[in-house]
Amino acid sequence: MEVAGTIAFVGIRRGMDIFGICVLGVVASVGGGMTRDIILGNVPGALIDPIYVVVALFTTLTVFYFKRTLPRGRLGIFYERAMLVMDSIGLGIFTVVGVTTGIRYGYLDNTFLLTFLGTLTGVGGGLLRDMMAGVPPYIFVKHIYACASVAGAISCIYIYRELGIRSTMTSKKPVYKKGDCYKKFENHLNREFHAEKPNEKWCMNFTYILMEESVITAAS
Question: What is the pTM of this model?
Fold first, then answer.
């Protein structure tokens, strides 16, 4: 993306080493989505699945290399145009992801919140990057970047409402593995909690904590 292409340039201009440039790259890539998840009260997905950070690091290093070795002329113009096209595609994808994430959590009727989440996901990472680098935020000086994200978010909301589309949350991993056997007991109590005498009925609360290889049961 064009935003990623400016990471190396901004970092070098600010006197940062390769570590600082990588930090800027990660923040620009996942910062908006992480902020969105925190607003929705969730652990950021980039912290749960490190593949997002790994891809961001790889992309930053690749862009850093080409930014230093890219020759001028027609090839340079082609590079800049290619970055602009990929940046536009990425902005649209991130904006839609932000909107659909809000819809999955039941905020389809809240236009302002969904627009905010979509725009934040699309441009929030670049805003954090520029603040960390101490330069004017990209979205305030470059084209109609933020305005395009807002327009895209509103369009996405309208399409979801008009077509009656509903997002559903799905688990990436199955709760139970195929072949596992769990004991099932008949429900004798059937929510009849009234007792005629002491110690006639006993109830316990079980909480199941899913681990990677097992299930921990806590009773109270």
Answer: 0.65
